[in-house]
Amino acid sequence: MKRTFYTEAAYAAGLIALALGTALMERADFGMSMVVAPAYLIYLKTSECLTWFTFGMAEYCFQAFLIIVLATVLHRFRRRYLFSFITAFIYGNVLDVMMKAVNLIPGDSILPRIACYTSGLLICAIGVSLLFNTYIPPEAYELFVKEISSEYGFDISKTKTVYDCSSCFIAVLMSFIFFGLWHFEGVKWGTVLCALVNGWLIGKCSGWLGMHFDFRDAFGFRRNSV
Questions:
Q1: Distance between CA atoms of 58 and 52, rounded to whole angstroms?
Q2: pLDDT digits (tens, 9 = 90+) for 80-123
Q3: Buried b vs exposed e over 167-185: b needs ≥16 C-beta within 10 Å?
Q4: 204: closest CA among 141, 161, 165?
Q5: What is the Cα–Cα distance from 149 to 151, expressed in whole angstroms?
Q6: Cβ atoms 171, 38 nearer than 8 A
Q7: Torsion angle, CA of 149/155/160/161, rounded to 10 degrees?
Q8: Residue 131 neighbours by CB under 8 Å, 6+ apart
Q9: What percentage of the chain has pLDDT greater than the value 70?
Q10: CA distance to 29, 98, 108, 128, per residue, from 103 (Å)
């Protein structure tokens, strides 16, 4: 029998997992996830002039822009798009906390960094999979994939892979523009690897969660999230 996993708990766990996984990948310094790489590059460039500007701030600013793009492409703006920005704002603040915590991890040799990268990649995939199983609007990244795949009938895992690869390409261009030709910041071999396997990994995590848990609402807020 499947165990009950309340969707509201999945929302909270998903946000925490995403923030922790992203912080671990930043600590590894093998390249950020292609999903957050554009926001990370905005953070690196902006913080050179505005020292108070954090990674979390860059995240919810960039996600606000992404929501505007989504609304433009689909020619509509729904209430859950606004709630998605609230999710991004919460995530950004949790990310800043996780960044401070993960930076306390000792060791800069190759093995601890590989451990941080690998665990961060897996934890991020779990976080995205959890958010796909909640009615509460996820971050703009997941919302974009979910809305586009639903609107046009695309497979969600394949749509995620296409989005990830596109984001990776944009991040490479941003790195060149911000820091010069062939000077990579935030986009490294780890970013490329993540772009290739992340969609598949999320599909596997989603399948495992579906086999072992029955996602149910604990509260009657589903109608208000549409």
A1: 11
A2: 899 999 999 999 999 999 999 998 888 788 999 999 999 999 99
A3: bbeebbebbeebbeeeeeb
A4: 161
A5: 6
A6: yes
A7: -140
A8: 10, 11, 14, 15, 18, 138, 139, 142
A9: 97
A10: 12, 8, 11, 23
Identify residue 161 by its one-letter amino acid code: T
Measured distance CA(152)–CA(65) in Å, rounded: 22
Which residue is associated with the tokens 């609007």?
137
Amino acid at 195: A
Q: What CA–CA distances, in Å, run from 118 to 111, 179, 190, 201, 214?
A: 11, 27, 10, 12, 28
Local structure of 214: helix, strand or coil: strand
How far is CA 209 from its chain centroid? 18
Please say whether the beta carbons of 5 and 215 come within 8 A: yes
Q: How far apart are the first and last CA of the chain?
A: 30
Q: What's the residue count for the chain?
A: 226
Tokens of 168: 């990776």
4, 213 contact by CB (below 8 A): yes
Q: What is the dihedral of CA 171, 40, 10, 123, to 10 degrees?
A: 80
